[in-house]
Amino acid sequence: MCLVRYSRLLEHAVMRVYLPHFPEVRAMSVQPVLPPLPATADTMAWLRALVGDSAAPLALVSDGARREFEVLLASPGLAELAGVPAGHVGTVTVLPGAPEQHGDGPTEVDLREPSRTPQDRPGQLSGNRRRRHVQLGGSPARLLWVSRHTTGTGVDLLQFALPHEPDGVPDLPARGQHQVDPVTGLKTRTTFERLGRTAIRGCSTEHPVAVLAIDLDRFKLINDHWGHDAGDVLLRAIAERLVQAHPAWQVTRIGGDEFIITIDDVGSAQLAHNAAQHALAAVSDTSIVHQGTVLMTTASIGVCMVTKPDTELSEAVRHADTALYSAKAAGRGRYVIGDTALVAGSDARLAAERRLRDALARRSVDVHFQPIVDLSTSRVIAYEALARLRDNQGQLITPDGFIAVAEESGLVYELDIQVWNAVLQRAIGAPRLSGPGVRIAVNVSGRTLSAADFTQHVRTGLDRASLPGEKFIVEITEHSALENSPRVQNTLIELTSLGIHLAIDDFGTGYSGLAHLRRLPVQHLKVDRMFVAQLKGDPGATSTVKAIIEIAHAHGLAVIAEGVESAGDARSLHELGCNAAQGWLFGAPAPLDPLNPRYR
Fold it and tell me: How much is the pLDDT for 578?
């Protein structure tokens, strides 16, 4: 969150300083030729205005010795970081013999650069590649000197950040510790809410505030596989890169793998685009080495532009989060600028989440069953159990209204558990389902598979229902099957030890090949309905389905085709060697009715 109202000149200059690290961003961010700095008197007034009300850790210092600088003016952000009143920061002293940390700084920046064409500009990144520890006069805190901006007035602008000790605990003063995240040294939500409201009160159409909601993609996999210590090291590295990316950004960690950057007086939508691109690059270019392995990740970002000073901060964050969800849904590793359509979609999603939470609280989860038919004998060999919910008015909620929401909201584990319990209860009272020769297929999400107690829950349910594990098929997606998580892999092995079969659902919609599935204890493969729908008049689709079937059989997998709606499709699939099929041709999903011959 950048709560600094900074000059266009400084903004452009600093963007040029850092953009050479990221060529793809630089290409999108070409600005007009910079005018020269104003005359000395005007420059000092400009610098004092810049630092005087800044929430970023900045200081104006005398251009003196390299080991000690006299502080002429410290920003409120620096004073808060150091834990002392702003007027009590008298000097900045480079600590002799103090450990140095590798990184992109302190970066030397000359703001006096004369106007030239971009092609003629000299390289502006200079100075050593280590960030120096410094001591502020009047403060017990040690900080990192990140960058130095030369103005030619005898006064320089310095930017600071928090260091981290070898044990991972930031070197903080006793005062104000609760306002600093202990893992990254960034500001916490409490400070963000206070400073964010102040920034929004000063915004306008000409001086908008940009709120960037950042979520690290699949960061949970790093914590699960390599441990939280490794995850924390990567979080710290990413936090430091974001802090260094631009002196006009105030970066906050609001929890887990989530950050917020607020940019006060961002200037234009294009500059907000540039900032989001720059933040994406800062994350994706950060890596650490843990136990000989390079760990890195990407980010998804949602951006909200605020132009009305009466906007609630919570509303701005909600809009940024909505854009963030859209970025993740579009494939992650990208950013989305929010608009009114996204807000409407967010309202619909929140309503769907409320309905889902209410249904789970009332335990109103039900299941419908769709038959799976052997194409050689036309005999029903299994039923797929499909989740159905009813709202508090008794209206049926179809899966497309809650499955995605369950995944995004973290409610999918509870949903899967209630579906499993409902399936067992229905199977006990239906001889056709509980009898020999017929299996019941149940969908389970990757998040549920990663839960340590899921297998035990399944085992307990089977024992209570007096049903064998061989009666059931657990259907998982390609992504869940190939997720590089030891917990998921162990759960799959544990399920098969109970006699449960495994099936890869919707095959062909993911990013895997059959060769990658050989190491999994899978017995069935379900061809996605999109391939079946293209069988008529599309030789390419027919060849694809045939190849999938042949390779699956070579790996010992039985093939089930989904979405079969015509007898012609069923015949074609049988001729191609497909083992079984399901779809409206054989029966739509329906509730369990003991009087229905299907279930007797």
Answer: 96
| Residue 135 maps to a domain | yes
Q: Is the dihedral of CA 324, 328, 329, 334 positive or negative?
A: positive
Largest distance between two CA atoms of the chain: 93
**Both 255 and 369 in a single domain?**
no
The gap from C-alpha 542 to its chain's centroid, in whole angstroms, comes to: 37
Q: 298 and 411: one domain?
A: no
- Look-up of token digits 């920061």: 89
Instruction: For residues 87-111, give the mean pLDDT.
Output: 55
Using CA atoms of 542, 544, 550, 553 in order, give the dihedral in degrees to the nearest 10: -110
Q: How much is the pTM? A: 0.50
Looking at the fold, whether 147 and 213 belong to one and the same domain comes out as no
Place of tokens 């590295």: 237
Mean pLDDT of 95-102: 51
55: its two tokens: 């929430």
Q: Is residue 198 part of a domain?
A: yes
Whether 576 and 410 have beta carbons less than 8 Å apart is answered as: no
424-479: pLDDT as tens digits: 988 887 777 766 789 999 999 988 998 888 999 999 999 999 999 999 999 998 76
366-374 vs 91-94, strand pairing mode: unpaired
Question: 224 with 249, same domain?
Answer: yes
Is 333 in the same domain as 419? no
CA-CA-CA-CA dihedral for 198, 199, 201, 205, to nearest 10: 180
Alpha-carbon distance of 219 to 226, in angstroms, equals 11
244 and 293 co-located in one domain:
yes
Separation CA 174–CA 262 (nearest Å): 27
Spatial separation of the C-alpha atoms in residues 331 and 407, rounded to whole Å: 15
Is the domain of 209 the same as that of 328? yes
DSSP state of 137: T
Number of domains in the chain: 3
H or E stretch at 506: strand 501-507
Model pLDDT, residue 84: 62
Q: Look at residue 211 and give its three-state secondary structure.
A: strand
Any domain includes 6: no
Strands 299-306 and 209-216, bridge-based pairing: antiparallel
Q: Which domain holds residue 85?
A: 33-166
- Residue 452 is classified by DSSP as T
pLDDT of residue 459: 95
Cβ atoms within 10 A of the Cβ of 518, count? 11
Could you tell me which residues come within 8 angstroms of residue 498 by beta carbon, excluding any fewer than 6 positions away?
455, 458, 459, 462, 469
Return the number of other C-beta atoms located less than 10 Å from residue 187's C-beta: 25
Residues 335/204/17/191 CA torsion (nearest 10 deg):
-80
β-strand partners of 160 = 145
Instruction: Residue 332: give its domain's CATH number.
Output: 3.30.70.270
- 338, 368, 383 - which closes a domain: 338
Is residue 379, in this structure, part of any structural domain at all? yes
Query: Is residue 315 classed as helix, strand or coil in its secondary structure?
Result: helix
By residue count, the chain amounts to: 600
Q: Are 549 and 583 a contacting pair, CB within 8 Å?
A: no
Of 295, 310, 338, the last residue of a domain is 338
Judge if 209 and 265 occupy the same domain.
yes
H helix runs in 124-254, sequence order: 189-201, 219-226, 228-245
Separation of alpha carbons 121 and 123, rounded Å: 7
Looking at residue 465, which CATH number applies to its domain?
A: 3.20.20.450
Nearest-5° Cα angle at 89, 87 to 94:
165
Look at the alpha carbons of 48, 52, 56, 57 in this order and tell me if their dihedral is positive or negative.
positive
